[in-house]
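Journal club prep — side note

Before the paper discussion, L.F. wants everyone to see what a predicted structure for a comparable chain looks like in token form. Sequence:
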Amino acid sequence: MLPEELSPIIKNAERSMKEAVQFCKKEFSHIRAGKATPALLENIRVDYYGAQTPLNQLANVSAPEARLLTVEPYDKSIIQDVEKAIMSGNLGLNPNNDGHLIRIPLPMLSEERRKELVKKAKEVAENARISIRNSRRDANDEIKSTVKNESLPEDSQYEGEEEIQKLTDKYINMIEEILQQKEKDILTV
């Protein structure tokens, strides 16, 4: 039975590991997998009256087709600024502006580009795994010091570390599953 002094440590470690998985999912949503998704433009900022404002606060972004994004600014006077921000976003997109709506056709991904995207996805996943392992290390250090400072039985240290390892394995497996799905999405034509 795990001593209650170790419960908060384990809960904190699990929360930290969950955050790493959420971060990984969020980063994956920005990696284009050949399908149009409004998340592709999530990091675009537009100069709106001197302030860098997120695009989704200034316009309706949607994906009416698998290879097309549309951006409809709420204020039509900023359509040029929105178009310029999308072009300078280093996404390799060429927006078409008709005065009311910006259409962004997504080109087919080349085999080389797909491999680059898979490589980027693997880097994101590795960073998430590193974060999870760091959470494990920090929790194990905290368990050791708690067992020592609270004069708990030595067995409780091993039980706590075992519990942390189970969480580590669980969340690293989640990262692997998410990565495999993302690779499949990127490589499927």
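L.F.'s comment for the group: The longest strand covers residues 59-65. Keep this in mind when we get to the figures.
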